[in-house]
């Protein structure tokens, strides 16, 4: 019988992990959030506090419920804090070596019937699974940004994922109010395989000074009805993460449309990571702010 899920470990409390922890706690689950150092952890906690305060201010959450939500989340800098959890969702940086190190460490910490899910956008889930002791319990669980808002989750099954593991990740997504779909392990899965060629093209268009950033974004918002322009979306995703996703997709499929636009690498090298660093294609009031100045 599948393990009952009452507490979920979230590894990496950045852009995605903080949002995923919030969603889990909002749906009554206990959460243990782990990040690599105290300042990242504090940042993740502050993100969750701000986001839930905005929900209260916007009338979407009662103050009392916010307090209970926040009380359900514990924080740690050591993966050992996950010894008792029932399910783990990993959301560390999009780098294969870092993810494999996290999964092999988790292997020796959690019980054998605990599902290990990765929120990777494009890395091979099969490669991460193969580095572990029990590859059949590893699955992809790709949330969308911002996790508290977006409804879709891609559940990535590998050739060795156990059917009950795929089912457990799907059931957890449904419990969180999301619409899960099951996909195979191909870089970019469904949404990013379609989205990133377009985002990359927008970055190239900006690089070539063909049009201003505002006009590129306005074309897609006001002309095509997209909720956000591509450059603003790249800033939301994080240019470092976007670069890693494109590079992974390009290495796998060699499609020119996925060869990262050089400006992305230049901006990442210069520390212009988008909203998370306070500056990307646009400049923001402070790191992680959505207010453009
Ligand atoms: P981020 O850079 O905002 O956050 C990553 C976090 O992981 C940081 O807080 C960092 O301190 C932490 N970390 C790094 N190494 C760690 C370790 N060994 N142990 C514990 N924590 C560690 O990255 P973001 O954007 O949240 O991406 C995380 C994952 O989610 C990536 O796999 C990415 O592809 C995926 N993703 C990102 C989306 C986006 O729009 N940014 C959307 C969907 C998935």
TrEMBL record:
Domain annotation 3-hydroxyacyl-CoA dehydrogenase NAD binding: ranges: 7-185
Start and end residues of each 3-hydroxyacyl-CoA dehydrogenase C-terminal domain: 188-284
Family per similarity comment: Belongs to the 3-hydroxyacyl-CoA dehydrogenase family.
Designated name of the protein: 3-hydroxybutyryl-CoA dehydrogenase
Organism from which the protein derives: Mumia flava
Full-protein residues shown: 1 to 293 of 592
């Amino acid at each position: 019988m599948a393990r009952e899920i009452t507490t979920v470990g979230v590894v990496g409390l950045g852009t995605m992990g903080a949002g995923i922890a919030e969603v889990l706690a909002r749906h009554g689950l206990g959460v243990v959030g782990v990040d690599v150092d105290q300042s990242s952890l504090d940042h993740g906690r502050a993100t969750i506090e701000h986001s839930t305060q905005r929900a209260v201010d916007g009338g979407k959450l009662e103050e009392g419920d916010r307090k209970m939500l926040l009380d359900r989340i514990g924080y740690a800098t050591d993966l050992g804090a996950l010894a008792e959890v029932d399910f783990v969702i990993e959301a560390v940086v999009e780098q294969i070596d870092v993810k494999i190190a996290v999964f092999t460490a988790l292997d020796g910490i959690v019980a054998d019937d605990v599902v290990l899910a990765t929120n990777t956008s494009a890395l091979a889930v099969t490669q991460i699974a193969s580095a572990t002791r029990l590859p059949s319990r590893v699955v992809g669980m790709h949330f969308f940004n911002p996790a508290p808002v977006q409804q879709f989750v891609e559940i990535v099954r590998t050739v060795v994922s156990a059917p009950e593991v795929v089912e457990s990740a799907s059931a957890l997504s449904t419990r969180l109010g999301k619409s899960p779909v099951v996909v195979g392990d191909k870089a970019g899965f469904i949404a990013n395989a379609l989205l990133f060629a377009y985002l990359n093209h927008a970055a190239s268009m900006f690089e070539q000074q063909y049009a201003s950033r505002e006009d590129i974004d306005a074309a897609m918002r006001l002309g095509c009805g997209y909720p956000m322009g591509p450059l603003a979306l790249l800033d939301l995703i994080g240019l470092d993460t976007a670069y890693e996703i494109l590079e992974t997709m390009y290495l796998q499929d060699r499609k020119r449309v996925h060869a990262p636009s050089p400006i992305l690498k230049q901006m990442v090298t210069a520390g212009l990571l988008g909203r998370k660093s306070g500056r990307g294609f646009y400049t923001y009031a402070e790191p992680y702010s959505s207010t453009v100045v």
